[in-house]
Amino acid sequence: xxxxxxxxxxxxxxxxxxxxxxxxxxxxxxxxxxxxxxxxxxxxxxxxxxxxxxxxxxxxxxxxxxxxxxxxxxxxxxxxxxxxxxxxxxxxxxxxxxxxxxxxxxxxxxxxxxxxxxxxxxxxxxxxxxxxxxxxxxxxxxxxxxxxxxxxxxxxxxxxxxxxxxxxxxxxxxxxxxxxxxxxxxxxxxxxxxxxxxxxxxxxxxxxxxxxxxxxxxxxxxxxxxxxxxxxxxxxxxxxxxxxxxxxxxxxxxxxxxxxxxxxxxxxxxxxxxxxxxxxxxxxxxxxxxxxxxxxxxxxxxxxxxxxxxxxxxxxxxxxxxxxxxxxxxxxxxxxxxxxxxxxxxxxxxxxxxxxxxxxxxxxxxxxxxxxxxxxxxxxxxxxxxxxxxxxxxxxxxxxxxxxxxxxxxxxxxxxxxxxxxxxxxxxxxxxxxxxxxxxxxxxxxxxxxxxxxxxxxxxxxxxxxxxxxxxxxxxxxxxxxxxxxxxxxxxxxxxxxxx
Length: 500
What we know:
Layout: H1 3-47, H2 52-71, E1 81-82, E2 94-102, E3 106-115, H3 116-119, E4 121-130, H4 140-156, E5 170-176, E6 180-184, E7 187-190, H5 207-217, E8 222-228, H6 230-241, E9 245-251, E10 255-262, E11 278-282, H7 297-304, H8 313-318, H9 323-338, H10 357-364, H11 372-382, H12 389-420, E12 436-441, H13 443-447, H14 449-463, H15 465-468, E13 471-475, H16 479-490, H17 495-499
Parallel strand pairs: 2-5, 5-8, 9-12, 12-13
Antiparallel strand pairs: 1-11, 2-3, 3-4, 6-7, 9-10, 10-11
Helix pairs in contact: 1-9, 1-12, 2-12, 4-5, 6-16, 9-10, 9-12, 10-11, 10-12, 12-14
């Protein structure tokens, strides 16, 4: 072999060695990245752990806080608000009733014709109205005048299928899903506006009085006979359909629960004389917190950076507003510590709340062989490109950990309510196993199938086979609007006249 040939061979060998070294280094670096990413996910799984024993501790803590909140005002993180709803729908209600459902940037107006036990809800109609942005930061008079005008227009379209007896006012159930201190079934003072509203002149004022004045300015002869929030409306609608409904739970963007308490279980300090033997309690359970809740560094950082640090801890761990954000924070840590998505952190991945829970749900439910939906969402929403199948599977694993922790904690909360009501077990001498129905509403529960199935399975596991046979979760989709109209009927000013 000539010198030239030998030289060329040496050069080729050296090049081959250099390539081999680069390949080995790349593999080692890739292996190191995956090891760091896997360690982050394993740590997340451990800290989010919700074995049955821990869930029972969470449920017990919920029950204790329920007792404390009822025993004294401010005695618990759970507000345990008296709703003044002591007359739930029975199915006997008759007549024409209206509802106004205000809880966000849109509101709904609804009317129903009730026909008693035979006719039930004979007919119903509704319209949805968007609130102009400037009215969300204007004056209360402007906002309520806008709402009253829309309601007056809706009343004017009342058809022949709806019948108001002669000489009677139209009656309205008002679902007002903002913090209110209730003072009667048809009055309550506003504590604060939320959800983007900033109308300071209404704080401390009776919201029913404000609406009533606006209705009068529109020349509309209508009386507000029930003021409720969406959870209590859902409970009322659920009870109308099923007499065994004992509680309602909202699992959507936010979360809350209400339940039916025995009147004699409410301490005398409330000064109430319920018409019936029961009273609906608005728990405001989103504010529940306990040392038994499996909080992670992601939850702590999210809470610290929120507009209400230290508050709504339970809500921040289980509701649709926050689940996608928790997943984003985990992915961001993996991007920073393991460089799994490239040497530079994708800019979109650093934007808070850019990953919404519906996007998380879409990824979690992806059953395609190449997890195409996961890849698409990562690219479009978070700016993470060129993801491998292994990466996509890792993302699904994170979604699974976060969603199932939330579902398990929600189930523990429901179990806590059942325990407070003595419905968590079946007495050995019980002949009649009375049903306990939970009316459920909210987009998270309705649309996130893996989440909702996990809630049901975990609750069944906590109750045991015998007790769980008499506990039912029923979807009460959009129950708050119809529930408000039913409460207007069950608290009608004409009720005594009708009974006589």
